[in-house]
Design goal:
Blueprint lengths: L2 H11 L3 H31 L5 H22 L2 H25 L4
Helix pairs in contact: 3-4
InterPro entries: DUF6442
Keywords: Membrane, Transmembrane, Transmembrane helix
Length: about 100
């Protein structure tokens, strides 16, 4: 491939390295803010003697979505398998904890 062909392909995709870097850093920054918020809410709930199960389920849903998107983009079966198994296990624990809170178990 010559230089012009590479430049044309890059322009057709509409994404350059700078845009990708900005997007990745923004995701990292927003995830840090979400983590801090979840930790603060969890700490507040612990001091109020409330459960944090719903926050845990939100976190698990986010991680499952992340693994699913990575599988879709890279087609690595390990991402999908690991993400699905981990999410199902955590979801089972979360549902069990939620039901035990209401006296079912």
């Amino acid at each position: 491939m010559d230089k012009e062909t590479i430049v044309e392909k890059a322009q057709k995709s509409g994404k350059d390295e700078r845009e990708m870097q900005i997007r990745n850093k923004s995701y990292k920054f927003s995830w840090i803010l979400v983590s801090i918020t979840l930790l603060a809410l969890a700490g507040f709930r612990v001091f109020q003697n409330e459960t944090v199960t719903d926050l845990f389920l939100i976190l698990i849903t986010h991680n499952f979505g992340l693994m699913l998107y990575q599988y879709y983009q890279k087609r690595e079966l390990t991402k999908l398998t690991f993400g699905t198994l981990l999410s199902l296990f955590a979801l089972g624990l979360g549902v069990f904890a939620l039901l035990s809170q209401y006296g079912v178990f």
